[in-house]
């Protein structure tokens, strides 16, 4: 009898541990992760563009993760420069283009980025090291651009959102008891 009770206790304990492990696997698996391009770079996601604009000397040399919409791409002899309108990132590090922007920043990289691929209007997430503030202009207005040395880039695919609506089917007779079924898909 004592052995049977010990076996039951073991089975109960195993059952609890088993389901605990399974639930932990699902919880960990469901966490949002960065795109694979950023796996080798340690970044401080909490450093924002507005913080860098207010006190650039405190963040020089830090790795940051910023994103936004490409405004301009310029290939030089030994580098490529991207001008980007910053937008806050969501949990997957995708720029939320429907939200408020806090400014623009420049990305310099020694890699060749084809401006036919990195076209204006595309959403991009960039990881890199903050270097400096550089004087420039937006139109006729002077602006100080934060410059990061780009180390990893992720271009986001365009999402096409389609809204489907159900409209009532035309039926010449009105029957109240048919109510939810008179809608067509």
From TrEMBL:
InterPro entries given in the database record: OMP_Slp
The protein, known as: Outer membrane lipoprotein Slp
Record organism: Thermodesulfobacterium geofontis
Entry GO CC: outer membrane
Coiled-coil intervals: none
A Pfam family this chain is assigned to: Slp
NCBIfam families: slp
Lineage: Bacteria, Pseudomonadati, Thermodesulfobacteriota, Thermodesulfobacteria, Thermodesulfobacteriales
Superkingdom in the source lineage: Bacteria
């Amino acid at each position: 009898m004592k052995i049977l009770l010990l076996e039951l206790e073991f089975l109960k304990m195993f059952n609890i541990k088993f389901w605990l492990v399974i639930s932990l696997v699902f919880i960990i698996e469901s966490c949002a992760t960065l795109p694979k391009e950023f796996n080798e770079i340690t970044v401080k996601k909490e450093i924002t563009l507005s913080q860098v604009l207010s006190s650039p000397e405190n963040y020089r040399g830090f790795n940051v993760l910023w994103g936004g919409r490409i405004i301009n791409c310029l290939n030089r002899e030994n580098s490529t420069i991207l001008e980007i309108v910053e937008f806050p990132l969501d949990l997957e590090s995708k720029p939320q283009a429907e939200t408020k922007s806090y400014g623009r920043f420049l990305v310099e990289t020694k890699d060749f980025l084809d401006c036919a691929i990195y076209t204006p209007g595309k959403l991009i997430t960039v990881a890199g090291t903050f270097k400096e503030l550089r004087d420039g202009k937006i139109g006729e207005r002077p602006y100080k651009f934060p410059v990061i040395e780009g180390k990893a880039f992720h271009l986001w695919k365009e999402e096409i959102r389609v809204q489907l609506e159900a409209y009532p089917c035309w039926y010449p007779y009105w029957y109240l008891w048919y109510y939810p079924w008179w809608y067509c898909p």
